[in-house]
Amino acid sequence: MGWLRRRPRRDGEDAPRDPEFAYFSEREAALFRATVREAFAELGLEVTVYAASVVDDQQRRFGLGNLAAVCHRDRRGIRVWPDLIRRHVSLVVRTLDGPSALDTLPPEQIRAQLYPRVVNGEGIDPDAFGYARTVAPGLYEVLALDLPESVMMLTDDALDRLGDPAQLRARALKNLRGLPVEEHETVRDADGMSFEVVLGDSFYTASRVLDLDALAQRVTGFPLGEHGALVALPFRHQIAFHPIRDTSIIPALGAMASFAAAEYEDTPGAISPYVFWWRGGTLTQLSEHDEEGGELRIVVGDDFQELLERLIAQGPGPR
Prior knowledge:
Layout lengths: L25 H17 L4 E3 L3 E4 L4 E3 L1 H9 L7 H17 L3 H4 L2 H6 L1 E7 L12 E4 L2 E8 L4 E3 L2 H7 L2 H13 L5 E6 L5 E6 L12 H9 L8 E4 L5 E6 L5 H16 L10 E5 L2 E4 L1 E3 L6 E3 L3 H13 L5
Antiparallel strand pairs: 1-2, 2-3, 4-6, 5-6, 6-7, 8-9, 9-11, 10-11, 10-12, 12-13, 14-15
Helix pairs in contact: 1-3
């Protein structure tokens, strides 16, 4: 009889939690940070380890949030963390020590690999990304250069070298529209609530909110109507939406708010835990966490309330 292989165990929720990465126990977090330090040391870099980052002797800071989330979400458990961490650290060091793609790639190739990327404001330095366009409260659109092993978000200095920002953004949006829809599924419940979810390995899946009307046409076969859509972009590899046409918006709003909050937790490339009203390219936030209790709640302004009342008066759509 062969031995059964058990899935590597993680510490239970009752174990003391790490203050920075609460999905790790204190023991798991210590192991994670020690492995990160070892991975840098193997490449000849001594780093000082902090709660959410490490700093090398050249004062270059490397954030650990995305890598920690990748390790946490890998179902194979702690045994694969060393390989995941070494691969990530090796890629980071190669990218920093190698020549810049802006110096080695011809201008037209750079433009062909340019994409808009929607990011959480906590992930960018406002002094370096002064050109960033506000998409919604706390969310910004920046331009990114897609490379074989990494994504380079372009700073003000980089754009100065490439040309007119408006023309570069137009080309980036064109490139975004050319991306395939990798995966699509419709989330439904027994009462008829539904919304669409698009997923993919692309770092720009959630950024398709910038071209949501075209995405909806490709996925559902219909463009968005005058009322727009509900939309959520929890993390970079996922976007969810529900075209607004009738009172089906009411159950969809609650379901999408819960979906966005859950999918945002502990994910690499987290963007927003909230659901928004997309109308003509403008995003209005419709959910938030209560500051006192932290509970999720729906918040609507006068325009959205008026829309709801009109849809209710119109009556339910076809089932």
